[in-house]
Amino acid sequence: MQRPLTRVKATTAELVEFAPTVTLTGVIAAQVETELSFRVGGKISERLVNVGDPVIINQLLARLDPVEQEAELQSAKAGLTSAEAQLRQSTASFERQKNLLTTGNTTRREHDQAEAAMRSAQSQVDQARAQLASAQDQLSYTELRADADGIVTARAVEAGQVLSQAQAVYTVARDGPRDAVFNVGEWALANVVMDKGLAISLVSDPAVATTGDVREISPAVNASTMTIAVKVGLRQTPPAMTLGSVVNGKGPMKQRKVFLLPWGALFELAGNPAVWVVDPRSNTVSLTPVAIDRYNRDTIAVTGGLQAGQIVVTAGTQLLRPGQKVEIATEPRS
């Protein structure tokens, strides 16, 4: 008695245009973030805002102990007072010499010396005024103020801490345009269409959505994650997309030709993907290695190893061995 043939389902491999949508997860960030620091070093005497606080332009954020700067200011004021007194004395002396010269009661040399002394005193006053202005600036630098409206996103210091000049104190995300920032693998970066608007939606509420355009692609790969930062500027920012919100970004892949096969066709050969191919003349099967471009929810996209028109087993693969003869129940294509 002849043993019945193994019955399998199969489909004919056909090249189709394939451009699936890629979904990436990122966060909402300000397009402009500023690290604020004092222009002078010193000890923080007061810290006035915390992370998450909104700030407005010129708002006082922190103070340094101003003892040193106040002493320099008093010294500069005293220096200016002394220089102005010297100028008044030199000016009066020059005026006397000028009057005496007109009556012939002094020499040209004494007149010129008095004029030179007056001009020198005037230079001393100008220098003292510049020193006073510098001292006033140094005192103003003991106050850290916001340079724009925004939200404090980071704080690097505490009251009582001694800072060096230009050491970061706060990071402020400025009000205005927002970005959706994604860490993208090199493969996705090379295959996703970036020159069209990308759909951005909240992970927690997909109904909150907008559109964004790629604004900046990092030139360097993050060594720890092996990804590249991509900033997508939002055309409009819904109120619910606050700083730090987690969002999904969807974009189409570049179109290519692939063979779309159901998951049931996938098999393994020496640890690599393969499919069973049926020889239509003998109805025998052979295992063929394939290159898979993408694993989809219901299908696999095959880019190599197959030719158009080949018959691929889609169900019953577990019972097959190379050279086995099968009975085909052709799977209708949807």
Question: How would you describe this structure to a colleague?
Answer:
It is a single chain. The chain has helices spanning 67-103, 108-140, 186-191, and strands spanning 6-12, 15-18, 21-30, 33-37, 42-47, 54-55, 60-64, 143-145, 150-155, 162-163, 168-174, 178-184, 198-202, 209-217, 228-234, 246-252, 256-262, 267-269, 272-279, 284-289, 291-295, 299-304, 311-315, 326-330. It has 334 residues and is α+β, with helices and mostly antiparallel strands. β19 and β20 (284-289) form a beta hairpin. The mean pLDDT is 89.
The major β-sheet equals:
6 strands, mixed
Can you count the beta strands?
24
Mean pLDDT score: 89
- Encode the helix/strand succession as letters: EEEEEEEHHEEEEEHEEEEEEEEEEEE
Estimate what percentage of residues fall within beta strands: 35-45%
Radius of gyration: 39 Å
**Roughly how many Å apart are the termini?**
38 Å
Structural class: alpha+beta
Give the fraction of residues assigned to helices. 10-25%
Summed up, the helix count is: 3
Shape: rod-shaped
Poorly predicted residue ranges: none
As an assembly, this protein is: single chain
